[in-house]
Fold this protein.
Amino acid sequence: MRRTLLVGLSVFAMLTLNVALADADGASVRTGVIHAMKVNKPAHHKRGGGSVLLSSHAGAIERTPSVFIIYWGPEWASGFTTGGHTSAAAQSYVQGFFGNVGGSSWANSTAQYCQGVAAGTTNCAGIAGAVFVNNPSGQLTGVWNDTSPVPSRLGTSNIAGEALNAVAHFGYNANADYMVFTPSGLSTSGFGTQFCAWHSSTSSSSGPVSFSNIPYQPDAGAACGMNFVNSNGYFDGFSIVGGHEYAETVTDPFPSSGWVDGAGAENGDKCAWISSGQGAAQNVTLSGGVSYPVQSLWSNAFNGGVGGCVVSYP
């Protein structure tokens, strides 16, 4: 019998699922805390994200971030079209973004965060033993189209299981986000009404695995970023939402043991869906001279240590 325990959605969209969810075949893969990006609604809009700083919870960061993209399902290989746009175009967009995000000034705000410091630390500068996030170029280290079918009743455990399949395919990397992209029409429950994407962790024989669930963002329309920055931005959600999950995974790969604030918000949550003013989502130029829409990210160091949402750092 399928059993699901859902312990609420906080103001910053942290879902806590500490029991495993059964897959369609009855198997299960246990997940840790699930941290979700809420859909775009006026009630979720921020204006600078408040002033409460992120603090270390004494857990790991991704020291040298790496991204593995998994296109799960035969639909990606055979191809599909939504809204006059092809899945091949979506894949090109996704790979263009993650292939160039490393080394960008947008991603560089993550480099102020560290591990190896006491819980409660808000500034890593000058602390002996602190190990910082690096922001090298070339962080997209693998792309795989797994043509095994996606279950019609897709659960949390299925996504975790696919992440473990990706570990078996690519190899284990403790500093990687294994990002599972599902095709149009196949997503976990709540996509487009409660959340746009989420990240979590699971265990493997090699160590803990950080992974993200990225449904087909255009299916949710404006609720998950379509046209949020660009009037013709059919795929805007892939870089806005995908970038949100990427940045949060870099600073909190095993939620919520990394960098979060007192309300449980990560660096992406505090700056989500800002449409104007300081920290507004906008097009930014990434490495290689390509431009993509992104949201801003929280920086503890901004404004003399007061903190705020930035699209470029320092």
Summary: The CA atoms of residues 206 and 266 lie 26 Å apart. The chain has a mean pLDDT of 91.
